[in-house]
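Input set for joint prediction.
Command: fold jointly, output tokens.
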Amino acid sequence: MSIATSEVTNRRDPGRTRQRLLMAGFEEVYRSGFQGCDLNAILGKAGVTKGALYHHFDSKDALGHAILEDVVAKITDDKWLTPLRESDTPLDTLITIIEGTFTDDEHAAGGCPLNNLAQEMSRVEEGFRARTAALFTTWIDTVADALTRAQAQGSLRPEVDARAQAQFVVAAYEGYMSIAKSLQSGAVLEAGVRQLVSHLNSLRPEPQNG
Amino acid sequence: MSIATSEVTNRRDPGRTRQRLLMAGFEEVYRSGFQGCDLNAILGKAGVTKGALYHHFDSKDALGHAILEDVVAKITDDKWLTPLRESDTPLDTLITIIEGTFTDDEHAAGGCPLNNLAQEMSRVEEGFRARTAALFTTWIDTVADALTRAQAQGSLRPEVDARAQAQFVVAAYEGYMSIAKSLQSGAVLEAGVRQLVSHLNSLRPEPQNG
DNA sequence: ATTGACATACCAACCGGTATGTATGTTTAT
DNA sequence: ATAAACATACATACCGGTTGGTATGTCAAT
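tokens >
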């Protein structure tokens, strides 16, 4: 075996090339939407050519699908799903996640990458719709699990419908993201965070006296 | 003045032509998004030619702007703003409006026309962003006014922040619309309606005993 | 007769996709 | 061990259909 088998910057590195295409594609799609973005702009940003793109992906649509499955899925995984699954105090963790939302105008104007693609593409191409739907479903399911676990440990009222509340949290969160994007207003996001946190705290059991 | 000045189907009817372009444009944009829709498809649906289109509008963007200002604005006006402004029982009217949401899968899969355009175009072209933002703002303002009036007449707790609650109602409503669109699920919309109505009812004052 | 309100025909550029060439690994037969 | 044979991973150049937009002609109303 030679000294450096794979760590040195090989000119041939399919994994790296694919990753660069995904990242560049994500950024361009985030800027201009999927239908509005230009493949050549993606290629320029990724520093590869069209041959490389069409070696790794069958079509522009296929690249979009991969962006959803790899990049967007990882974002929600890192920010929401993994912390919730690993948490011993799910309700507190959920609140911490929501409070961790970036509320500057810049981020607000960008919107939620998942929702951006979902709203633009759901009616246009079924592959996008199915994948965004799957991501939303997993997201809601994971929040619902967290709320159910919170109930089991007594930090959430037993009579609340965990699944309905999970759906509500995700919907309201995305709704605030949507409004804030159009208004380019971090303040709207801040208000949304406060509203959601306040709502979640209202679902805690009454402190028992005596 | 001649017998029939304008009521008979004149071959030359600029108002009607413009309206047909707006309606056809709205439908195509609702189907495929703004960037994805085809001008020729709009022309075919409207039954006019490209000359007519570019006589009434300077560009595709200008048509999109007019769709927002005329068609989309009228939809929210008819469904939300006018009923709220004319109501003597604003909280009940607000609830009735929300409960009037069509919750079949078909409507759910379409999403909210305003939000569709807002999410797709806000970062792409400032004219769209400004117009969707104006519509969202008017919407929220009108709900806030209704809630304030509800407070004045004692049907809403005095300590609630009417503006924050208005923002919340619109955001949550749009959020449910977004999720329901991706999931193609009228059931999600139904759940959202119930959740929102329940929330609004929780803001009513406690019934006074004695 | 002049202006508004269209229709027809056409253009030019963009852009997704392809055809083809080539350099770089990987396997296989000897 | 080594070279042939093959597969993978790109690069380059180009195509052609789509599509927003325009130039020009025509008809109707005042």
